[in-house]
Automatic annotation (TrEMBL):
<dbReference type="GO" id="GO:0002224">
    <property type="term" value="P:toll-like receptor signaling pathway"/>
</dbReference>
<feature type="transmembrane region" description="Helical">
    <location>
        <begin position="440"/>
        <end position="460"/>
    </location>
</feature>
<keyword id="KW-1133">Transmembrane helix</keyword>
<keyword id="KW-0472">Membrane</keyword>
<feature type="transmembrane region" description="Helical">
    <location>
        <begin position="79"/>
        <end position="98"/>
    </location>
</feature>
<feature type="transmembrane region" description="Helical">
    <location>
        <begin position="258"/>
        <end position="278"/>
    </location>
</feature>
<protein>
    <submittedName>
        <fullName>Unc-93 homolog B1, TLR signaling regulator</fullName>
    </submittedName>
</protein>
<feature type="compositionally biased region" description="Acidic residues">
    <location>
        <begin position="492"/>
        <end position="512"/>
    </location>
</feature>
<feature type="transmembrane region" description="Helical">
    <location>
        <begin position="309"/>
        <end position="329"/>
    </location>
</feature>
<feature type="transmembrane region" description="Helical">
    <location>
        <begin position="183"/>
        <end position="202"/>
    </location>
</feature>
<feature type="transmembrane region" description="Helical">
    <location>
        <begin position="28"/>
        <end position="49"/>
    </location>
</feature>
<dbReference type="GO" id="GO:0034154">
    <property type="term" value="P:toll-like receptor 7 signaling pathway"/>
</dbReference>
<dbReference type="GO" id="GO:0035325">
    <property type="term" value="F:Toll-like receptor binding"/>
</dbReference>
<dbReference type="GO" id="GO:0034138">
    <property type="term" value="P:toll-like receptor 3 signaling pathway"/>
</dbReference>
<feature type="compositionally biased region" description="Basic and acidic residues">
    <location>
        <begin position="553"/>
        <end position="570"/>
    </location>
</feature>
<dbReference type="InterPro" id="IPR043268">
    <property type="entry name" value="UNC93B1"/>
</dbReference>
<dbReference type="GO" id="GO:0006886">
    <property type="term" value="P:intracellular protein transport"/>
</dbReference>
Length: 570
């Protein structure tokens, strides 16, 4: 008993203490990697699915054959509007959600909302797509505020575990100003290095699945006359049929099931890998903030002169995200080399952002404004160049130049985004509630994108934005369409469409077909399946015969009424 309970000569208390805090430091690194990988996976799924969805829904033949008179163009318009408009009220509810749920559970809940959006694509209807899009718009700002707060808080914890012998750490006092800057820089850089890879993985569905169905640039760009600085709108004259043939419904379900599995994996990572950001006692203190203060604190933070000076950078960050995947990759990229190269343009941009996020590590030696200044130095000359550069449509030889421009733009974007998050973590490391600061940052981003969305009235036709993406109204369905049931649809002879719908479509059919022939232009625009034209002709013939019967019946009724009136007069 004495040997068991007595002091062990081999036990070294100091060494065991070192081992304990070493495990704590590894736990912090695990938390940072888990949050980074989880965010990367969920955004890869979201952007990849939304891009594939908008390309399929843009194609006129796909809408006619698969979904008929469902009105996909109107659904997509309202869905993208929900993603863009909802974040503007995020300043009111984001602090409340984080107050009750905490940063970890807020990230888990937001990833669940993104997974919900993926699940609604199994049954594409107005009452599934639009509410899920509004939910995503509501979750964007809370998710990013939680991620920024979580990474900064992990930097503070890592400092505490490295310097566990310091008196202010043992007494759990406020940390001295500036002691966590080194770890904030490293952890935020690591986060963005991993997260920007989401732009690369988001293109896997298009490259591995959708690419085989896309028409080449000679067809899609047949009527496009101007690109780049001379173009008006997103891509003026872009063909309304972009698919050579339609993908099978079973294949679509398989792709969406893979994406659904990845979304669930992200939820599991947030739940099982990421640890708590605060100690239990700290959580109690944070949740003791009253209801009045919880609404007032975001607006009180706006009175800080440092935040007010950074607002132009917040707005530019939102415009940068918008321009990168709409103006640059569409108006310059797709307009020049065709939709089949879209995956390569976005992949190069994502790789450039990920690689050059490492440059923010230079803030360990250089002043903290260097990152933002470097982004401005790179983007400034590029913007001047893009204002005067108008590549010719259908010019695949311009692809190398486009890739160089996109890679340089990705370098500037990486410095801007990583630099802003690092700067906020360094300026407000002494704040107990960092989520207020990051909420204001991403709220201004959402405001910038919302203003552009209202100002331009443009809706993205064939691509998506990494955080929130605007979109453009698509043309209406112009031919008799089968009634749908999920991915399966009924043939024309078995269709149970109402006669009123058919007669309404028949009234405007000839005028709409003339418009389509003019828009398609020449042989490239006249492509379509023979079976579709035969079905249209057969349906028109039956409707004309039905209309003739109605006219004859009306004439008979008029003659009978005239005969009755003559009898009454006699």
């Amino acid at each position: 008993m004495e040997e068991f309970l007595g002091p062990q000569p081999e036990y070294d208390e100091e060494e065991e203490e070192k081992k304990y805090y070493r495990r704590k430091k590894l736990g912090v690194v695990k938390n940072v990697l888990g949050a980074s990988v989880g965010g990367m996976i969920i955004y890869s799924v979201y952007m990849g699915l939304l891009q594939m969805q908008l390309i399929l829904h843009y194609d006129e033949t796909y809408r006619e054959v698969k979904y008929g008179n469902l009105g996909l163009e109107d659904i997509d318009k309202k869905m993208l509007m929900g993603i863009n408009v909802t974040p503007i009220i995020a300043l009111l509810y984001t602090p409340i959600l984080i107050r009750f749920l905490g940063t970890k559970w807020m990230m888990f809940l937001a990833s669940g909302i993104y997974a919900l959006f993926v699940s609604t694509n199994y049954w594409e209807r107005y009452y599934t797509l639009v509410p899920s899009a509004v939910a995503i718009g509501a979750a964007i700002v809370p998710l990013w505020a939680s991620l920024g707060t979580y990474i900064t808080r992990m930097a503070q914890q890592y400092y505490e575990y490295v310097n566990y012998k310091e008196d202010h750490v043992q007494e759990q006092k406020k940390l001295p100003k500036g002691v966590c800057h080194r770890y904030v820089i490293i952890f935020q850089s690591v986060f963005f290095i991993i997260f920007h890879l989401s732009l690369v993985f988001a293109e896997f569905p298009q490259r591995l699945f959708l690419h085989q169905f896309l028409s080449d640039y000679n067809h899609t760009l047949y009527n496009v006359k101007h690109c780049g600085a001379e173009g008006s709108g997103m891509i003026e004259g872009f063909n309304r049929t972009v698919l050579k043939h339609l993908p099978r419904s079973l294949l679509l379900i398989q792709v969406e099931s893979v994406l659904m599995g990845a979304a669930f994996l992200s939820m599991i990572i947030f739940l099982a890998v990421c640890g708590a950001a605060y100690r239990p006692t700290e959580e109690i203190d944070l949740r003791s903030i009253g209801w009045g203060n919880i609404f007032q604190l975001p607006f009180k933070h706006l009175r800080d002169y440092r935040l007010r000076l950074l607002i132009p950078f917040f707005i530019y960050s939102g415009l940068d995200s918008l321009f990168s995947v709409t103006g640059l990759t569409l108006s310059y990229g797709v307009c020049t080399v065709g939709l089949e190269w879209l995956y390569l343009l976005v992949m190069v941009y994502g790789l450039s952002c990920s690689l050059f996020s490492c440059l923010s590590l230079s803030l360990l030696r250089l002043p903290r404004y260097v990152s933002l200044l470097g982004g401005a130095v790179i983007h400034g000359p590029l913007l001047v160049f893009l204002l005067f550069w108008s590549p010719a449509p259908r010019s695949p030889d311009q692809l190398p130049y486009l890739l160089v421009v996109i890679a340089l733009w990705g370098m500037g974007s990486a410095l801007n985004k990583t630099g802003l998050s690092i700067l906020l973590g360094m300026l407000y490391e002494d704040k107990e509630r960092l989520d207020f600061v990051y909420t204001i940052y991403h709220w201004w981003q959402a405001i910038a994108i919302f203003i552009v969305y209202l100002w331009t009235g443009l809706i993205m036709r064939v691509c998506v934005c990494p955080c929130v993406s605007p979109g453009v109204p698509m043309s209406p369905c112009v031919s008799p369409c089968p009634r749908v049931k999920g991915y399966r649809y009924l043939e024309e002879e078995n269709s149970d469409e109402s006669n009123s719908e058919e007669s309404d479509e028949d009234d405007d059919e000839e005028h709409q077909e003339e418009v389509i022939r003019e828009d398609f232009g020449g042989d490239a625009g006249s492509q379509g399946s023979d079976s579709t034209r035969e079905r249209r002709g057969g349906a028109r013939g039956r409707r004309r015969r039905r209309d003739d019967d109605y006219e004859q019946a009306g004439e008979r009724e008029e003659r009978e009424k005239e005969g009755e009136r003559g009898i009454e007069k006699e």
